[in-house]
Structure formats: structure tokens, C-alpha cells
Amino acid sequence: MRFSSTVVKFLLAFTVSFSFMAHAAPAAEPVKVALQAFKVVDVNGKETLTESKTAKPGEVLEYRAVYSNVSKKIITNLAATLPVPVGMEYVALSVKPAGAQASTDGKVFSAMPLTRKGADGKTVPVPLTDYRALRWTVSSLTPGKPFEVSARMRVSAVAAGK
Length: 162
Fold this sequence. Notes:
Helix content: under 10%
Strand order of the largest sheet: 1-5-11-7-8
Low-confidence stretches: 1-28
Largest sheet: 5 strands, antiparallel
Mean pLDDT: 83
Oligomer: single chain
Structural class: mainly beta
Radius of gyration: 17 Å
Strand content: over 45%
Shape: flat
Number of strands: 12
Number of helices: 1
Distance between the termini: 17 Å
């Protein structure tokens, strides 16, 4: 199976950028984040997840991030964030746990589905291709009790250059 170098670079950039998007308040509290990417495949009519570092256009990946408090104190107001890189499209209703917010710029988050004013002044849905980040708010993260988030993304043909 041959994968576009654009997709490989893109996924590597995703992993690197992800490590900078985990935020905890206060910032000095240590939070460890482990990210895994799984390719969603159909095996004999049954959905299976296989660990993957690459993907091709049209394939769906499930990203899982596990946030662990490695300190001895409870961490409060953790913003558990998954970026949605350019070239990926968030798959609607795939977030776990429920209650995540989304953003088109990685800064301002709102409840899903996102909406905006159209040219005619009416409220219209934001295309899923415009989502750039997902965020869950964790009121407290206890030492030794990890918090896992996940969401699915579809690789677009644009990401692979086709």
C-alpha cells in the first residue's frame, strides 16, 4: 500500500502540534498526554480499529488522547484538546465522551454543531471541513485516574494532493 508523502508529513505534524495543545490550569501542574491514531476498517462487516501512522484519502482515523495527571495534586479546569488538521474533516457525532466543543481557529470554542451568519444574514451550519479543533473541559483530573477523549477524522483528497 502506498501513501502520499503529504499525508505522512501531515500526520507527523498533527502528532507534534497535538503535544502543544494540552493545557492545564495552573500551567505548572504536570499533565502527560498520550496520543494514538487508529485506522477504522471494515473486516467482514465488523468495524475494527488498527493502529496507524499513515492514511490515504477517504480513510477514517480515530484519534485517542489519554490525559494523565502525574502530580500528587488534583488538576482543575483542564482543556483536553484534539486538533483537526487542515486536510482532515471531523466526522460528525464521533466525539467521546459527549459534550466536546469545536473551533474553526483553535482559540474560540462553541457547542457543536457550529453555526455562523451566512451572506443573507441567516444562521447556517459551519462545514465540518472548517473545524480545526475539539475541546473537552475537565473540571478536575485526579492523580492516577486518566481522562480519555477521542474523535474520528476523514482524510480528504486535498490533503494528499489529489
